[in-house]
From TrEMBL:
Annotated protein name in UniProt: Glutamate-1-semialdehyde 2,1-aminomutase
Organism: Hyunsoonleella jejuensis
Residue list for modification N6-(pyridoxal phosphate)lysine: K267
Family per record: Belongs to the class-III pyridoxal-phosphate-dependent aminotransferase family. HemL subfamily.
The gene coding this protein: hemL
Principal EC category: isomerase
Transmembrane feature ranges: none
EC number(s) stated in the UniProt entry for this protein: 5.4.3.8
Organism lineage: Bacteria, Pseudomonadati, Bacteroidota, Flavobacteriia, Flavobacteriales
Known partners and oligomeric status: Homodimer.
Localization per record: Cytoplasm
Main localization category: cytoplasm
Keywords: Cytoplasm, Isomerase, Porphyrin biosynthesis, Pyridoxal phosphate
Cited SUPFAM superfamilies: PLP-dependent transferases
Length: 428
Protein backbone atom coordinates (compact mmCIF):
# COMPACT_ATOMS: atom_id res chain seq x y z
CA UNK A 1 0.00 0.00 0.00
CA UNK A 2 1.08 3.58 -0.58
CA UNK A 3 1.37 5.98 2.34
CA UNK A 4 2.72 9.02 0.50
CA UNK A 5 0.27 11.61 1.74
CA UNK A 6 0.30 10.21 5.30
CA UNK A 7 4.09 10.54 5.31
CA UNK A 8 3.94 14.13 4.06
CA UNK A 9 1.29 15.03 6.65
CA UNK A 10 3.40 13.45 9.38
CA UNK A 11 6.43 15.53 8.34
CA UNK A 12 4.32 18.69 8.65
CA UNK A 13 2.85 17.57 11.98
CA UNK A 14 6.27 16.82 13.50
CA UNK A 15 7.27 20.46 13.07
CA UNK A 16 4.49 21.79 15.26
CA UNK A 17 3.29 18.88 17.43
CA UNK A 18 5.72 16.90 19.65
CA UNK A 19 6.42 13.65 17.80
CA UNK A 20 3.72 14.65 15.31
CA UNK A 21 0.95 13.20 17.50
CA UNK A 22 -1.32 14.37 20.30
CA UNK A 23 -1.08 11.06 22.14
CA UNK A 24 2.09 8.94 21.99
CA UNK A 25 0.33 5.63 21.33
CA UNK A 26 -0.55 6.93 17.87
CA UNK A 27 3.09 7.20 16.85
CA UNK A 28 4.72 4.19 15.23
CA UNK A 29 7.68 4.43 17.57
CA UNK A 30 7.23 0.85 18.78
CA UNK A 31 6.96 -0.61 15.28
CA UNK A 32 8.85 1.83 13.05
CA UNK A 33 7.55 3.78 10.05
CA UNK A 34 5.17 6.72 9.94
CA UNK A 35 1.65 6.80 11.36
CA UNK A 36 -1.32 6.45 9.05
CA UNK A 37 -3.42 9.62 8.84
CA UNK A 38 -7.15 8.96 8.81
CA UNK A 39 -9.43 10.88 6.46
CA UNK A 40 -12.69 9.28 7.47
CA UNK A 41 -14.20 6.09 8.79
CA UNK A 42 -17.47 4.21 8.42
CA UNK A 43 -18.57 0.99 10.10
CA UNK A 44 -15.61 -1.37 10.43
CA UNK A 45 -13.38 0.54 8.00
CA UNK A 46 -10.90 3.37 8.14
CA UNK A 47 -10.11 5.34 4.98
CA UNK A 48 -6.72 7.01 5.10
CA UNK A 49 -5.38 10.10 3.38
CA UNK A 50 -3.94 7.94 0.57
CA UNK A 51 -7.39 6.39 0.01
CA UNK A 52 -6.39 2.99 1.39
CA UNK A 53 -9.19 1.08 3.10
CA UNK A 54 -8.19 -0.57 6.37
CA UNK A 55 -10.21 -2.92 8.57
CA UNK A 56 -10.02 -1.31 11.99
CA UNK A 57 -9.17 -3.34 15.10
CA UNK A 58 -8.42 -0.34 17.32
CA UNK A 59 -11.78 1.32 17.06
CA UNK A 60 -10.56 4.49 18.74
CA UNK A 61 -9.02 2.23 21.43
CA UNK A 62 -12.37 0.77 22.33
CA UNK A 63 -15.42 3.00 22.03
CA UNK A 64 -16.61 2.33 18.48
CA UNK A 65 -18.37 -0.85 19.57
CA UNK A 66 -21.09 -0.36 16.97
CA UNK A 67 -18.77 0.94 14.26
CA UNK A 68 -17.56 4.30 13.05
CA UNK A 69 -19.94 7.13 12.16
CA UNK A 70 -22.81 5.14 13.66
CA UNK A 71 -25.88 6.96 12.46
CA UNK A 72 -27.88 7.37 15.71
CA UNK A 73 -24.77 8.81 17.38
CA UNK A 74 -23.91 11.13 14.49
CA UNK A 75 -27.49 12.40 14.24
CA UNK A 76 -27.72 13.00 17.99
CA UNK A 77 -24.54 15.09 17.89
CA UNK A 78 -25.66 17.12 14.86
CA UNK A 79 -29.04 17.91 16.39
CA UNK A 80 -27.49 18.91 19.72
CA UNK A 81 -24.80 21.07 18.12
CA UNK A 82 -27.46 23.20 16.45
CA UNK A 83 -28.70 24.19 19.92
CA UNK A 84 -25.39 25.29 21.39
CA UNK A 85 -22.23 23.42 22.26
CA UNK A 86 -21.51 24.33 25.90
CA UNK A 87 -23.21 26.32 28.63
CA UNK A 88 -21.46 25.61 31.91
CA UNK A 89 -24.98 25.13 33.33
CA UNK A 90 -26.99 21.99 34.03
CA UNK A 91 -28.90 20.35 31.18
CA UNK A 92 -31.60 17.66 31.22
CA UNK A 93 -29.63 15.25 29.06
CA UNK A 94 -27.01 14.84 31.83
CA UNK A 95 -29.68 13.36 34.09
CA UNK A 96 -31.00 11.16 31.28
CA UNK A 97 -27.66 9.52 30.54
CA UNK A 98 -26.91 9.24 34.27
CA UNK A 99 -30.26 7.45 34.81
CA UNK A 100 -29.56 5.09 31.95
CA UNK A 101 -25.99 4.32 33.03
CA UNK A 102 -27.05 3.71 36.63
CA UNK A 103 -29.82 1.37 35.43
CA UNK A 104 -27.41 -0.68 33.28
CA UNK A 105 -24.63 -1.16 35.83
CA UNK A 106 -24.88 -3.12 39.10
CA UNK A 107 -24.18 -1.53 42.44
CA UNK A 108 -23.96 2.16 41.52
CA UNK A 109 -26.38 4.89 42.60
CA UNK A 110 -24.71 8.02 41.29
CA UNK A 111 -22.34 8.88 38.48
CA UNK A 112 -20.32 11.97 37.63
CA UNK A 113 -19.20 12.75 34.09
CA UNK A 114 -15.74 14.07 33.27
CA UNK A 115 -13.83 14.49 30.00
CA UNK A 116 -11.48 11.50 29.83
CA UNK A 117 -10.58 8.18 31.41
CA UNK A 118 -7.58 9.87 33.00
CA UNK A 119 -9.82 12.33 34.81
CA UNK A 120 -12.18 9.56 35.86
CA UNK A 121 -9.42 7.48 37.50
CA UNK A 122 -7.67 10.50 38.99
CA UNK A 123 -10.93 11.66 40.57
CA UNK A 124 -11.83 8.15 41.73
CA UNK A 125 -8.68 7.78 43.81
CA UNK A 126 -9.07 11.27 45.27
CA UNK A 127 -12.59 10.30 46.29
CA UNK A 128 -11.32 7.01 47.75
CA UNK A 129 -8.71 8.89 49.76
CA UNK A 130 -11.22 11.52 50.92
CA UNK A 131 -13.76 8.87 51.86
CA UNK A 132 -11.37 6.60 53.79
CA UNK A 133 -9.02 9.26 55.17
CA UNK A 134 -6.03 7.17 53.99
CA UNK A 135 -3.29 8.11 51.49
CA UNK A 136 -1.84 5.05 49.79
CA UNK A 137 -3.17 3.17 46.79
CA UNK A 138 -2.29 -0.19 45.28
CA UNK A 139 -2.06 -0.48 41.52
CA UNK A 140 -0.90 -3.37 39.36
CA UNK A 141 2.19 -3.37 37.16
CA UNK A 142 1.18 -3.10 33.51
CA UNK A 143 -2.23 -1.60 34.25
CA UNK A 144 -2.83 1.84 32.79
CA UNK A 145 -5.21 4.27 34.43
CA UNK A 146 -4.44 7.40 32.45
CA UNK A 147 -1.53 9.76 32.69
CA UNK A 148 -2.11 11.45 36.04
CA UNK A 149 0.93 11.41 38.32
CA UNK A 150 -0.16 8.70 40.76
CA UNK A 151 -0.59 6.18 37.96
CA UNK A 152 2.61 6.65 35.98
CA UNK A 153 4.32 4.00 38.03
CA UNK A 154 4.93 0.83 36.01
CA UNK A 155 2.13 1.92 33.70
CA UNK A 156 1.21 -0.28 30.75
CA UNK A 157 0.11 0.70 27.25
CA UNK A 158 2.06 3.54 25.59
CA UNK A 159 4.21 4.14 28.68
CA UNK A 160 5.56 0.59 28.42
CA UNK A 161 5.84 0.69 24.64
CA UNK A 162 8.12 3.70 24.89
CA UNK A 163 10.14 2.36 27.80
CA UNK A 164 8.88 5.00 30.24
CA UNK A 165 6.60 3.11 32.61
CA UNK A 166 7.84 5.51 35.29
CA UNK A 167 7.74 9.07 33.98
CA UNK A 168 10.15 11.86 34.89
CA UNK A 169 8.11 14.70 36.37
CA UNK A 170 6.30 12.46 38.85
CA UNK A 171 7.69 13.48 42.24
CA UNK A 172 8.97 10.93 44.72
CA UNK A 173 6.43 12.31 47.16
CA UNK A 174 3.63 11.21 44.85
CA UNK A 175 5.25 7.93 43.82
CA UNK A 176 5.67 6.77 47.42
CA UNK A 177 1.91 6.61 47.87
CA UNK A 178 1.45 4.25 44.92
CA UNK A 179 2.22 0.67 45.89
CA UNK A 180 2.80 -1.75 43.08
CA UNK A 181 1.50 -5.32 42.91
CA UNK A 182 1.74 -8.05 40.30
CA UNK A 183 -1.45 -8.75 38.36
CA UNK A 184 -3.07 -12.05 39.30
CA UNK A 185 -0.83 -12.42 42.39
CA UNK A 186 -3.04 -12.24 45.48
CA UNK A 187 -0.20 -13.16 47.88
CA UNK A 188 1.69 -10.12 46.67
CA UNK A 189 -1.33 -7.91 47.43
CA UNK A 190 -1.65 -9.43 50.91
CA UNK A 191 2.01 -8.73 51.63
CA UNK A 192 1.61 -5.09 50.60
CA UNK A 193 -1.47 -4.68 52.77
CA UNK A 194 0.33 -6.23 55.75
CA UNK A 195 3.31 -3.93 55.32
CA UNK A 196 1.07 -0.86 55.11
CA UNK A 197 -1.60 -1.62 57.71
CA UNK A 198 -4.31 1.05 57.97
CA UNK A 199 -2.75 3.21 55.26
CA UNK A 200 -4.32 1.96 52.03
CA UNK A 201 -7.31 3.86 50.67
CA UNK A 202 -7.99 1.76 47.60
CA UNK A 203 -6.88 -0.93 45.21
CA UNK A 204 -7.36 0.12 41.60
CA UNK A 205 -7.42 -2.52 38.89
CA UNK A 206 -8.41 -3.14 35.30
CA UNK A 207 -10.70 -6.13 36.03
CA UNK A 208 -9.64 -7.47 32.65
CA UNK A 209 -6.28 -5.91 31.86
CA UNK A 210 -6.19 -4.36 28.41
CA UNK A 211 -2.96 -2.38 28.51
CA UNK A 212 -0.41 -5.20 28.51
CA UNK A 213 -2.28 -6.98 25.79
CA UNK A 214 -5.44 -8.58 27.08
CA UNK A 215 -4.99 -10.40 30.38
CA UNK A 216 -7.95 -12.03 32.10
CA UNK A 217 -8.14 -12.20 35.88
CA UNK A 218 -7.33 -15.73 37.09
CA UNK A 219 -10.25 -17.59 38.61
CA UNK A 220 -10.90 -16.31 42.12
CA UNK A 221 -8.49 -13.35 41.83
CA UNK A 222 -11.13 -10.60 41.78
CA UNK A 223 -13.12 -12.40 44.51
CA UNK A 224 -10.02 -12.53 46.71
CA UNK A 225 -9.34 -8.84 46.12
CA UNK A 226 -12.93 -8.09 47.11
CA UNK A 227 -12.65 -9.99 50.38
CA UNK A 228 -9.25 -8.48 51.21
CA UNK A 229 -10.75 -5.03 50.66
CA UNK A 230 -13.72 -5.86 52.91
CA UNK A 231 -11.43 -7.19 55.61
CA UNK A 232 -9.09 -4.19 55.64
CA UNK A 233 -11.57 -1.40 54.96
CA UNK A 234 -10.04 -0.65 51.57
CA UNK A 235 -12.12 0.50 48.60
CA UNK A 236 -11.99 -1.62 45.46
CA UNK A 237 -11.85 0.56 42.34
CA UNK A 238 -12.58 -1.08 38.99
CA UNK A 239 -11.16 0.83 36.06
CA UNK A 240 -13.70 -0.16 33.43
CA UNK A 241 -12.57 2.41 30.87
CA UNK A 242 -12.10 -0.44 28.38
CA UNK A 243 -14.40 -3.12 29.78
CA UNK A 244 -17.39 -0.97 30.76
CA UNK A 245 -20.38 -1.35 28.42
CA UNK A 246 -18.20 -3.64 26.26
CA UNK A 247 -17.94 -6.98 28.05
CA UNK A 248 -21.55 -6.81 29.21
CA UNK A 249 -24.16 -4.12 29.88
CA UNK A 250 -22.84 -3.93 33.42
CA UNK A 251 -19.21 -4.42 32.36
CA UNK A 252 -16.78 -6.64 34.26
CA UNK A 253 -18.78 -6.21 37.48
CA UNK A 254 -21.64 -8.06 35.80
CA UNK A 255 -19.46 -10.55 33.89
CA UNK A 256 -17.60 -11.72 37.00
CA UNK A 257 -20.36 -11.04 39.54
CA UNK A 258 -18.11 -8.83 41.67
CA UNK A 259 -19.16 -5.47 43.08
CA UNK A 260 -16.55 -2.75 43.09
CA UNK A 261 -16.84 0.30 45.35
CA UNK A 262 -15.98 2.86 42.70
CA UNK A 263 -16.11 2.24 38.95
CA UNK A 264 -14.37 4.34 36.29
CA UNK A 265 -15.58 4.69 32.72
CA UNK A 266 -14.37 6.42 29.58
CA UNK A 267 -14.49 6.25 25.81
CA UNK A 268 -17.56 4.04 25.30
CA UNK A 269 -19.71 6.21 27.50
CA UNK A 270 -19.10 9.11 25.10
CA UNK A 271 -19.72 7.18 21.89
CA UNK A 272 -16.41 8.53 20.58
CA UNK A 273 -16.60 12.01 22.05
CA UNK A 274 -14.29 13.02 24.91
CA UNK A 275 -16.01 11.62 27.99
CA UNK A 276 -15.19 9.72 31.14
CA UNK A 277 -17.18 9.06 34.28
CA UNK A 278 -16.87 7.60 37.75
CA UNK A 279 -19.64 6.08 39.77
CA UNK A 280 -20.35 4.51 43.17
CA UNK A 281 -22.95 4.04 45.85
CA UNK A 282 -24.51 7.27 47.18
CA UNK A 283 -22.70 6.87 50.48
CA UNK A 284 -19.38 7.33 48.64
CA UNK A 285 -20.46 9.74 45.87
CA UNK A 286 -22.01 12.15 48.42
CA UNK A 287 -18.49 12.96 49.57
CA UNK A 288 -17.98 14.89 46.34
CA UNK A 289 -18.37 18.67 46.09
CA UNK A 290 -20.82 20.37 46.31
CA UNK A 291 -22.36 17.83 48.75
CA UNK A 292 -19.11 16.88 50.43
CA UNK A 293 -15.54 18.05 50.85
CA UNK A 294 -13.77 16.14 48.04
CA UNK A 295 -13.30 18.66 45.25
CA UNK A 296 -13.67 17.73 41.60
CA UNK A 297 -14.89 19.92 38.74
CA UNK A 298 -14.86 20.59 34.98
CA UNK A 299 -16.03 23.41 32.68
CA UNK A 300 -16.81 20.97 29.87
CA UNK A 301 -17.92 18.06 32.07
CA UNK A 302 -21.36 16.85 30.97
CA UNK A 303 -20.90 18.72 27.70
CA UNK A 304 -24.11 18.52 25.63
CA UNK A 305 -22.48 17.07 22.49
CA UNK A 306 -20.68 14.40 24.47
CA UNK A 307 -23.80 13.57 26.46
CA UNK A 308 -25.89 13.32 23.27
CA UNK A 309 -23.38 10.94 21.69
CA UNK A 310 -23.11 8.91 24.89
CA UNK A 311 -26.86 8.71 25.40
CA UNK A 312 -27.39 7.52 21.81
CA UNK A 313 -24.66 4.92 22.24
CA UNK A 314 -25.84 3.57 25.60
CA UNK A 315 -29.46 3.54 24.38
CA UNK A 316 -28.42 1.28 21.49
CA UNK A 317 -26.38 -1.01 23.73
CA UNK A 318 -29.22 -1.18 26.25
CA UNK A 319 -31.90 -1.99 23.70
CA UNK A 320 -30.02 -4.70 21.78
CA UNK A 321 -29.97 -7.68 24.13
CA UNK A 322 -27.81 -9.71 21.74
CA UNK A 323 -25.05 -7.21 21.02
CA UNK A 324 -22.59 -8.49 23.63
CA UNK A 325 -23.11 -12.11 22.55
CA UNK A 326 -22.64 -11.16 18.90
CA UNK A 327 -19.41 -9.34 19.73
CA UNK A 328 -18.13 -12.28 21.70
CA UNK A 329 -19.03 -14.78 18.94
CA UNK A 330 -17.29 -12.71 16.28
CA UNK A 331 -14.19 -12.44 18.44
CA UNK A 332 -14.22 -16.17 19.13
CA UNK A 333 -14.39 -16.83 15.38
CA UNK A 334 -11.37 -14.58 14.87
CA UNK A 335 -9.59 -16.23 17.79
CA UNK A 336 -10.07 -19.71 16.32
CA UNK A 337 -9.11 -18.59 12.81
CA UNK A 338 -5.90 -16.87 13.90
CA UNK A 339 -4.95 -19.73 16.22
CA UNK A 340 -5.22 -22.21 13.34
CA UNK A 341 -3.13 -20.05 11.01
CA UNK A 342 -0.39 -19.47 13.60
CA UNK A 343 -0.38 -23.14 14.52
CA UNK A 344 -0.23 -24.29 10.87
CA UNK A 345 2.67 -21.89 10.26
CA UNK A 346 4.56 -22.96 13.41
CA UNK A 347 4.53 -19.46 14.89
CA UNK A 348 4.95 -19.57 18.70
CA UNK A 349 2.05 -17.66 20.19
CA UNK A 350 -0.42 -17.20 23.01
CA UNK A 351 -3.79 -15.60 22.36
CA UNK A 352 -5.73 -14.12 25.27
CA UNK A 353 -9.37 -13.20 24.93
CA UNK A 354 -12.25 -12.03 27.07
CA UNK A 355 -15.46 -11.26 25.18
CA UNK A 356 -14.60 -8.77 22.44
CA UNK A 357 -11.09 -7.99 23.72
CA UNK A 358 -8.29 -10.10 22.26
CA UNK A 359 -4.50 -9.98 21.95
CA UNK A 360 -1.88 -12.02 20.17
CA UNK A 361 1.42 -12.51 22.03
CA UNK A 362 4.36 -13.95 20.12
CA UNK A 363 5.52 -16.30 22.85
CA UNK A 364 4.32 -19.74 23.80
CA UNK A 365 4.15 -19.38 27.55
CA UNK A 366 1.06 -18.28 29.46
CA UNK A 367 0.60 -14.50 29.66
CA UNK A 368 -0.92 -13.54 33.02
CA UNK A 369 0.95 -10.43 34.23
CA UNK A 370 3.28 -7.67 33.10
CA UNK A 371 6.44 -9.78 33.22
CA UNK A 372 4.97 -12.56 31.10
CA UNK A 373 3.41 -10.00 28.71
CA UNK A 374 6.82 -8.37 28.21
CA UNK A 375 8.34 -11.68 27.12
CA UNK A 376 6.61 -11.57 23.71
CA UNK A 377 8.90 -11.29 20.72
CA UNK A 378 8.82 -7.64 19.76
CA UNK A 379 10.64 -8.10 16.44
CA UNK A 380 8.05 -10.66 15.39
CA UNK A 381 5.29 -8.28 16.44
CA UNK A 382 6.80 -5.42 14.42
CA UNK A 383 6.93 -7.42 11.24
CA UNK A 384 3.46 -8.86 11.92
CA UNK A 385 2.09 -5.33 12.38
CA UNK A 386 3.54 -4.11 9.08
CA UNK A 387 2.49 -7.29 7.31
CA UNK A 388 -1.10 -6.77 8.46
CA UNK A 389 -1.03 -3.09 7.53
CA UNK A 390 0.15 -4.03 4.09
CA UNK A 391 -2.80 -6.41 3.83
CA UNK A 392 -5.24 -3.63 4.77
CA UNK A 393 -5.77 -4.55 8.42
CA UNK A 394 -5.03 -2.01 11.12
CA UNK A 395 -4.08 -3.34 14.57
CA UNK A 396 -2.59 -1.24 17.38
CA UNK A 397 1.04 -0.31 16.71
CA UNK A 398 2.26 -1.92 19.94
CA UNK A 399 2.56 -5.43 21.32
CA UNK A 400 1.16 -4.13 24.64
CA UNK A 401 -2.25 -3.26 23.22
CA UNK A 402 -5.50 -5.15 22.87
CA UNK A 403 -7.57 -5.52 19.71
CA UNK A 404 -11.11 -4.18 20.10
CA UNK A 405 -13.78 -5.85 18.02
CA UNK A 406 -16.69 -3.88 16.60
CA UNK A 407 -20.14 -5.22 15.81
CA UNK A 408 -19.82 -3.57 12.39
CA UNK A 409 -17.40 -6.35 11.34
CA UNK A 410 -18.98 -8.96 9.08
CA UNK A 411 -17.86 -12.58 8.99
CA UNK A 412 -16.47 -11.70 5.55
CA UNK A 413 -14.26 -9.08 7.22
CA UNK A 414 -13.14 -11.65 9.78
CA UNK A 415 -12.25 -14.13 7.03
CA UNK A 416 -10.38 -11.38 5.20
CA UNK A 417 -8.44 -10.72 8.43
CA UNK A 418 -7.62 -14.40 9.01
CA UNK A 419 -6.37 -14.68 5.41
CA UNK A 420 -4.32 -11.53 5.95
CA UNK A 421 -2.73 -13.15 9.02
CA UNK A 422 -1.92 -16.19 6.90
CA UNK A 423 -0.07 -14.05 4.38
CA UNK A 424 1.56 -11.77 6.99
CA UNK A 425 3.06 -14.66 8.98
CA UNK A 426 4.80 -16.05 5.89
CA UNK A 427 7.23 -13.12 6.13
CA UNK A 428 7.83 -13.03 9.87
N1 LIG B 1 -7.95 3.48 32.05
C1 LIG B 1 -7.82 2.53 31.11
C2 LIG B 1 -8.07 1.10 31.48
C3 LIG B 1 -7.47 2.88 29.82
O1 LIG B 1 -7.33 1.93 28.89
C4 LIG B 1 -7.26 4.24 29.49
C5 LIG B 1 -6.88 4.70 28.11
N2 LIG B 1 -6.53 3.76 27.20
C6 LIG B 1 -7.41 5.19 30.50
C7 LIG B 1 -7.76 4.78 31.77
C8 LIG B 1 -7.20 6.64 30.22
O2 LIG B 1 -8.23 7.14 29.42
P1 LIG B 1 -8.01 8.45 28.55
O3 LIG B 1 -7.01 8.11 27.50
O4 LIG B 1 -9.37 8.75 28.01
O5 LIG B 1 -7.53 9.53 29.45
Amino acid sequence: MIYKRSSALFTDAEKVIPGGVNSPVRAFKGVGGTPVFVKEAKGAYLYDEDDNRLIDYINSWGPMILGHAYEPVVNAVIEKAKKGTSFGMPTEIETKIAQLAVSMVPNIDKIRFVNSGTEACMSAIRLARGFTGKDKIIKFAGCYHGHSDSFLIQAGSGASTFGTPNSPGVTQGTAKDTLLANYNDIKNVETLIDANRGEIACIIIEPVAGNMGCIPPKEGFLESLRSLCNKHNILLVFDEVMTGFRLAKGGAQELYGINADIVCYGKVIGGGLPVGAFAARSEIMNHLAPLGPVYQAGTLSGNPLAMAAGLAMLTELNSDAEVFNRLSEKTEYLHKGITKVLHDNNVPHTINRVGSMISVHFDESEVYDFTTAAKGNNDTFKSFFHGMLNEGVYIAPSAFETWFITDALTYGDLDFTINAVNRAVKNL
